[in-house]
């Protein structure tokens, strides 16, 4: 067991801990804002494609291909940004957990242990599924939707000829 730090050092550790927690919260807020942006743009793009399929199928092949590539590129950028936010917050929580070892309470460490080690009543799965895991599926689903819409547009354009 480590010996408690002297009062000045303890106050400094607490201030650093509070700063680290605040910065982790800000990263999470930025991630939420980025998700809102990408979800709005992707939804608008898929909606426009859905309403424009008759016209897109009459267009040259490269028009729906360019639209689909734009959507897939957006999906890739979104997914990479989510991965970056996850890595950044992961590093921040390593620092937070390290600081907690020097404090009298380990709030985030204990919370994480509780989530991972207890099964919620009435749940099918006994483990905690991180939000980031499901969050990173959404850009992949949009990329797949763009591919499906592209295929449908190209096939319907070919069949109409």
TrEMBL record:
InterPro entries attached to this UniProt entry: 8xMP
Transmembrane domains' residue ranges: 36-53, 59-79, 137-160
Keyword Transmembrane helix: yes
Protein's UniProt name: DUF4231 domain-containing protein
Annotated keywords: Membrane, Transmembrane, Transmembrane helix
Pfam families linked to this entry: 8xMP
């Amino acid at each position: 067991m480590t010996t408690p730090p002297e009062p000045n050092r303890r106050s400094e550790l607490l201030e650093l801990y509070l700063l680290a927690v605040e910065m982790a919260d800000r990263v999470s807020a930025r991630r939420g804002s980025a998700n809102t942006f990408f979800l709005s743009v992707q939804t608008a793009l898929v909606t426009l494609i859905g309403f424009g399929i008759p016209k897109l199928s009459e267009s040259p092949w490269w028009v729906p291909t360019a639209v689909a590539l734009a959507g897939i590129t957006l999906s890739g950028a979104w997914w990479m940004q989510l991965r970056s936010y996850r890595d950044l917050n992961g590093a921040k929580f390593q620092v937070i957990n390290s600081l907690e070892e020097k404090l009298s309470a380990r709030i985030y460490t204990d919370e994480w242990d509780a989530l991972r080690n207890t099964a919620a009543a009435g749940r099918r799965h006994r483990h905690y599924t991180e939000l980031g895991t499901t969050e990173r599926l959404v850009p992949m689903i949009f990329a797949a939707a763009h591919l499906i819409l592209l295929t449908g547009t190209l096939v319907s354009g070919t069949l109409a000829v």
